[in-house]
Fold:
Amino acid sequence: MSLLSPGHIRLPLLCLLGGMALFLASCRRGKGKSAPAYDLGPSEALLESGLSLERGDGEWEKREKEGRLSPQVARILQEENGQRELMEAANELLREQRYHDFTELLDRAEREGRATPALLQLRGLPQALQALSLFCARRPFTKSQDLEDSLVFLSPWREELSRMAPEAFPPFWEAQEALLASLRQEEFLRRCRACEEELELALLTRQWHSRIPQCLEAFSRLGGEPELLRCLASPPGGWLAPEGWCAARELAAWLRWDELLPQERTSLKRLLEERQPATMAGRLLLGRLTPSPEAFLETLLLWQKAMEGHNGIFSPAFLEEYRQLLPEGGKVAPVTGVAESAFFLYRLLP
Structure:
């Protein structure tokens, strides 16, 4: 079967014959009188005027006087050039931070009827730029409250700045919000660590055991979800894991020691052996699981240093456990610093 029907052949053939007829007619016309040339003067003048408008040399006025441009076109070009010069002047005043002069320029252009919508949109920009300048002058921010207050201060101009700098300002604002979240998290962790240190001294100092309840209550006032409270409220098997191991988990293990199953204590021992304990309680737990009286002696020195500056006579709550770990004869491997603190240790022993 043929792929081309008579209709498919007829149309190209007619187009070819028509093209040939036009070509032959033009040849015959060329032998007679030639057609008049098209006057390119007005088109060239308009093109040259566009280039003059781009350069700002104003030569379209000369072309109007020469009759190469109509008065209507010349007036349009003049108005366009005036608006461009007005916008350039406004931009220059903004760059130089001459906001008072900028406002006067807009007011004068509005009175004279020369202010375009694009120019009038800039009216609120000076205040927005001043607010942004004040915001940047307060950087760098080290406290979340300072950054939060500054963002509240800048927020009335957020829409204006986003509209005028759509590619720059929205990412800038998002970066400040991310910084705010980061600062809040850092401050939260510092407050948690301070509460952990207070709790640890209460746990390891016999005379401060009465403080333990109020130390635990302090965590609930921190807001958020402190890791210690999460560990105290969930089964140990869920947080006795390497991922996210921290000081709070060591303190939680100390507090929940009696609840730990044998396999959980084995997991705890492995965790403490694989990393340096972050707390005195962690060192004691490792010494308890090993068992190692040397670990208790090392912790005793750390506890003694932590108690410096506190008035009163205090004794470590883990002293009796240390004595039970001592071998017969009371000799243990040498520990750096113990000799210098021997008088302190002997005073604590009965």
Residues 169-204 form the longest helix (36 residues). The chain has 18 helices and no strands. Residues 1-32, 37-41, 337-344 have pLDDT under 50 and may be disordered.
